[in-house]
Amino acid sequence: MNIELDLITACINRERRAEYELYKLTYSYLMSICIRYTNNKEEAEEVLNTGFLKILSNLTKYRAETPFKAWIRKVMVNTLIDAYRKEKTRNEQIKYVENYIETSDFSDVNNALTKMNTEQIYTMIRQLPPMSQKVFNLYAIDGFAHKEIAEMLDMSEGTSKWHLSFSRQQLKEMITKMVPQKKVAS
Amino acid sequence: MSTEQENFDDLLKSKLDENEFEFNEANWDKAETLIIQAEKKRKRRIIGFIFFIGLILGICVMIPFIGTENDINIEKTDFNDKKSIKIENKTESEVKPGNISENNNKVIKKGENEKGINRNQQIASSANKALNENSGEEVNPKKDKAVIADSYPTEKQRNNSSGTIFTETKNNKVAKDKEPKGRGKDYNGNDAQFVAKENQKTEIAIVNNSKREVKANKEMENQITEITSVKNSKKETETIPTKEAKNTTSVQNENSNAALLVLDSTKGVVLTNTNPKKDTIITKDSIVKAKIDSDKPIAKEAAEIFKKCTIFSIDAGTTYAFGWTNNTTKEADGFNAVFGLSASHQFTKKWSVLLGVQYNSLAHLNYSNYTSSNLQYDLGYNQTKTIITPTILYYMAIPIKLQYHFNEKNNISIGVNALYLLNTSSKIETYTESTFGTPVYNSSTKKGYMDGFSTWDLQPSFAYRRRIVKCLSINAEVYYGLMDLKKNGVFGPIKSEHNSGLKLTLSYNFLYK
Questions:
Q1: Whether B209 contacts B225, CB under 8 Å
Q2: Its pTM surpasses 0.80
């Protein structure tokens, strides 16, 4: 994805053609983010459009020093979190967990993971509980710190860490379940 | 965090980054629709902002023109622009020599002078009658207010080309005989003259009546000014003698031919004039301290000029709700329609009350109120998620306002709008997902989900109204909702949602009562 500054300027000037070009160039990248946070492709596309609208309306705030890819990722993640907040119930949100257990035995899992395709990974992530899914995506893939995640999702850092650990554990279990099946199948 | 965990994350990330999504042209169409809608919304906001600024500027421009009229300025005499005696809610007015001039007299038709003479003859006879009644008797000052009134054109005035009637009171022989203090002077005219007197007080009530009918007591209510001139008492009358005459009082009437003398046992002599603004006393070569009997006639007059009325109006316009923020998302802000009926009852010249009924709405709600999730495990799982998002609240509003009128065109008001929640419109979204089937999404709009909303709302308001033409007014209002629209117990977050904003309506006055 190579976005030129001229294209961004044209988008700021509300040129529809430029907006279309930007959409086309960023579609795959934005979709890869959205698909991880949502349950299906349709939902992901809906949030992608909302996020893209936010990107367009905030383009004037973009500074050339920042990588455009990182900037649109942040905008899109914020959009996804907002969408999640809108539909979540309060009970889901309040879950304070201070104690968590980290599992360290990932050597076998990593080997198995290399053999998996992307679609399988998406399916696994989607099977995680919603809050754990968000925390895992934010921390492990999008690179947010626990402090930022805690602010975003209105929880404590400890809770965020617990969700991350829980997600890893769940994924590990899922992978270990899937790998023998593959072996059997092969 | 262990290296294996880090590797797990990195591996997962790289795997996900490998994936490429094919561009979906159809999705761009949806995105384009969103972009167009956003642009329209932005334009509407800009227009609304410009309109609001224009309104504020308009009000600022109009402020200097508000309240310049002095409504209760009762001019008792204005038939002469320059040298008239004005009585403005004063109990007493002094007529100084500088204000008195024969030239002050207004022009009336020549032919009317003759009528005036005849009239004065009548006056004279009435006066003589009164005099006879009083002669040789001790006058009861409480009951019989003896009268001095002389209304007769002098020779000079008769020849006056302007045709002005100038009436003059001079010493009267009869009066002089009867008058203990001897202050009265004879009148050298031919016709009407008399002096009525009283031991201490002599009262002259002078009112014009163009109809020339003497109905003194009844017509007192018809914008009467009663002026008491104390003539024969040194205590109450100040006169400055001149070379020509002392204690002369001239009564000048603009519209009528002559003053009309009425003897009334309680009120004294009353000269009536249908035009309340045309009465005066002008002294010639003397100062007469005219004493208004009391404030009541003037107050009564002022009250009677204003007529209580009720105006019924049809109101229609728009409100701009400021909305509130829900988890960084702005909600309920934007324009809504408002229309209704109102009745304004003006009970004094300055004050009125307004009562109305309006249909009001609050749209642009977007925060999900209810989310229910149903997960069933059978062979696999079946999950149904229902999200109910109220989008519009419908209210019946009852505005009650107290209005202060600067003048006929401008008024401000303060009051309260009582709002009753009639209904809501909600968006119902259902996601159904199962292990073996494809996810299904349904969306529909339904009314009636009113749980979790306050039934009543109270909005203190401040408004400015300006009449554009006789039957059309523009009304700008700012209001603040006191009640929390959403019950926090139901929605969880402790947050107050107040319905505040601006209202701009046009009122068509269709009925006056």
A1: no
A2: no
